[in-house]
Amino acid sequence: MSGCIDIIEYLRKKMIHMVETHRDFTNPDVVRISQRLDLFIVQAQKKGMTGNGDGEQAQVVYDESSVKLARG
User: Fold this and answer.
1) Cβ(28)–Cβ(69) below 8 Å
2) 8 A C-beta contact, residue 35 and residue 42
3) What pLDDT, on a 0 to 100 scale, did the predictor assign at position 15?
4) Which letter does DSSP use for residue 57 in this model?
5) Amino acid 20: pLDDT
6) How far apart are CA 34 and CA 14, in angstroms?
7) CA 34 to CA 60: how far, in whole Å?
8) Residue 63 and residue 7 in contact, taking contact as beta carbons nearer than 8 Å
9) Terminal alpha carbon distance of the chain
10) Mean pLDDT of successive 10-residue segments in the chain (72 residues)?
């Protein structure tokens, strides 16, 4: 669980930093980080944050190269 929370917290802090840097919530970099954060929050919620139902702790792996974002 701690790894999942660490990833979410890392992305949250990164997004806050990007907003402070660009001073714009609609900046493409800010939106990209926000979308990535959303994906990991949803993934963590699906895994229940504490386990996967078979007694083992759920694990969420952050691999920036494998995250695919919707482009609009």
Assistant:
1) no
2) no
3) 94
4) P
5) 93
6) 9
7) 17
8) no
9) 32
10) 80 94 92 92 78 51 50 36
Between vectors from CA 11 to CA 34 and to CA 52, what angle results, nearest 5°?
100
Question: Residue 29: its pLDDT value, please?
Answer: 92
**What is the pLDDT at residue 69?**
42
Tokens representing residue 39 in the block: 């994906």
Spatial separation of the C-alpha atoms in residues 23 and 16, rounded to whole Å: 10
Q: How many CA atoms lie less than 13 Å away from 49 in the CB half-sphere? A: 8
User: By C-alpha distance, which of 1, 2, 72, 66 is closest to 39?
Assistant: 66
pTM check: above 0.70: no
Identify the pLDDT of residue 51: 52
Decide: 15 and 37 in contact? Cβ < 8 Å.
Answer: yes
Residue 7 · residue 62 · CB < 8 Å: yes
